[in-house]
Design brief:
alpha+beta, three-stranded antiparallel beta sheet, globular, Phage tail assembly protein, Phage_tail_E/E
Length: 100
């Protein structure tokens, strides 16, 4: 029997990116948006996020997400905690291995 994973209605996942619908509009690059997309990360993205001088895991994650979403770190910091959690959940679904 195959187990099927259901996804939340606010999440759209493909092999190349994840799009997260926000619970309320937020500003990204000076524009009000109702969703954010993260492209699939590369090894280079991970290395750049770590090399950005970040001393803690939170800052490295912000560096990475800002790069993948092509928005500023301040834009991510302006998200509600609920919406940032959605972004995190989307990211982890995007990078998880499909093999069982």
């Amino acid at each position: 029997m195959t187990e099927q994973t259901t996804q939340p209605s606010w999440l759209h996942l493909t092999a190349e990116r994840v799009t997260v619908r926000l619970s309320r509009p937020s500003e990204a690059n000076g524009v009000q948006v109702d969703s954010l997309s993260l492209r699939a990360p590369t090894v280079r993205d991970m290395r750049n996020a770590q090399a950005g001088g970040a001393k803690d895991d939170e800052q490295r994650e912000l560096n990475l997400f800002a790069s993948l979403a092509e928005v500023g770190i301040k834009d991510l910091e302006g998200l509600t905690l609920k919406d940032y959690g959605r972004l995190q959940a989307g990211y982890f679904r995007l990078v998880q291995d499909d093999a069982v």
